[in-house]
């Protein structure tokens, strides 16, 4: 795209009546009333020190459109000025929009969502994030993070505009790939907590890490499998794995799954494949499989005699509930993974705690210990 500075066919300095000047569709939607009044007071005393940049109106005779300087024009109207100094230039619509977006990016009072919308418009005009970062003297990661805010659900957008959540919290919500989970997370974070305000940035991050991401290390399924959940494919190449998407996750661990719905679907699929029925032969466990709590329960089931199987079945289920509860899964998530109701899960956890009388270590790698607990 041709630079605006090279496209100016003419440039004229002149005083123009405030009434002849009209606003143009601008990236900025919010103007601080108090600051406008302060600027208006200054203009009354000293006049408009920096000329507005305008162009002839494309459809109205003897009218002009603002390119740069709308805040000064609004303040001049408040100060009851009849005329303001202007620089008149012949500019195309594309050049007008480009100039406005670049000029507005330097404003401190531009909201994060307004900045993100402006960046997206420049991308639509042929800019790349890298070129945009260079033009605006910003880092590429800053541009990508700003653009990510456009993925916020409405609840998150409203909270960010009201100043109820920080930009960093908004970015955390926007990075959740599943649209339904993103909407759910936004509502939960914006919802008032015990202090009467939305969750702080620290608590919001902890909430998302607890409920909306999963650690892949020790996952009870083969991460390289492409057919376990065919539509999802392998975790090793999945863009929802943080290590495969350093644009959205430039820092932190590489083995974090950001799609809990997919993760739980794979857990359920793996359990279905390894579930032992009374007619099944005992399962030989690999060292890797024995490292996970769900594998320990499967191993225990395989080694029980037929006579004890029925009695231990309910205890095994409760133990699985308890293990997942201490791993940080909610009752709803456990219920979805194990095909039962949240009420059953809650009751099972309570009974397991009462029966076993032990607070399990969620990082345990002792299948034999877990087996003894259920057989007791």
Explain how this protein is built:
By secondary structure, the protein is an alpha/beta fold. The protein is built from 17 helices and seven strands. It folds into four domains: about 5-110, Alpha-Beta Complex (Conserved hypothetical protein from pyrococcus furiosus pfu- 392566-001, ParB domain), CATH 3.90.1530; about 150-210, no CATH class; about 215-275, no CATH class; about 280-375, no CATH class. The protein has helices at about 35-45, 70-80, 95-105, 110-125, 130-135, 140-150, 155-160, 165-175, 180-190, 200-210, 260-275, 285-290, 295-305, 305-325, 330-340, 340-355, 365-375; strands at about 10-15, 20, 50-55, 65-70, 85-90, 215, 255. The strands form two sheets. Strands 1-5-3-4-2 form a five-stranded mixed beta sheet. The termini are far apart. About 30% of the residues are buried.
Descriptors:
376 residues, two-stranded antiparallel ribbon, Conserved hypothetical protein from pyrococcus furiosus pfu- 392566-001, ParB domain, alpha/beta, 4 domains
């Amino acid at each position: 795209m041709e630079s605006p500075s090279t496209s100016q066919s003419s440039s004229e300095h002149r005083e123009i009546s405030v009434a002849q000047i009209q606003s143009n569709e601008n990236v900025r939607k919010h103007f601080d009333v108090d600051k406008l009044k302060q600027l208006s007071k200054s203009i009354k005393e000293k006049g408009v020190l920096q000329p507005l940049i305008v162009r002839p109106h494309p459809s109205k005779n003897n009218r002009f459109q603002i390119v740069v300087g709308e805040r000064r024009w609004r303040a001049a109207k408040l100060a009851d000025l009849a005329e303001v100094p202007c620089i008149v230039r012949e500019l195309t619509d594309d050049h007008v929009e480009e100039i406005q977006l670049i000029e507005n990016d330097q404003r401190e009072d531009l909201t994060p969502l307004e900045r993100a919308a402006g960046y997206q418009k420049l991308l639509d005009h042929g800019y790349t994030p890298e070129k945009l970062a260079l033009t605006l003297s910003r880092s590429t990661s800053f541009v990508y993070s700003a653009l990510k805010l456009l993925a916020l659900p409405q609840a998150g957008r409203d909270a960010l505009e009201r100043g109820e959540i920080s930009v960093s919290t908004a970015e955390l919500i926007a990075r959740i790939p599943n649209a339904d989970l993103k909407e759910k997370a936004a509502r939960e974070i914006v919802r008032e907590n015990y202090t009467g305000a939305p969750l702080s940035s620290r608590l919001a991050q902890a909430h998302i890490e607890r409920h909306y991401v999963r650690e892949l290390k020790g996952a009870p399924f083969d991460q390289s499998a492409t057919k376990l959940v065919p539509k999802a494919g392998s975790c090793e190449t999945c863009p929802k794995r943080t290590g495969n998407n350093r644009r959205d996750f430039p820092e932190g661990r590489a083995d974090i799954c950001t799609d809990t719905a997919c993760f739980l679907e794979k857990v359920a699929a793996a359990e279905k494949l390894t579930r032992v029925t009374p007619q099944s032969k005992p399962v030989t466990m690999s060292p890797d499989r024995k490292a996970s709590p769900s594998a320990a329960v499967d191993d225990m089931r395989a080694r029980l005699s037929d006579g004890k199987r029925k009695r231990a079945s309910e205890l095994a289920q409760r133990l699985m509930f308890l293990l997942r509860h201490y791993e940080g899964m909610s009752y709803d998530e456990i219920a979805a993974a194990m095909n039962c109701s949240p009420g059953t899960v809650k009751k099972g956890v309570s009974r397991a705690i009462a029966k076993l009388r032990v607070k399990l270590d969620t990082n345990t790698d002792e299948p034999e210990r877990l087996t003894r607990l259920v057989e007791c």
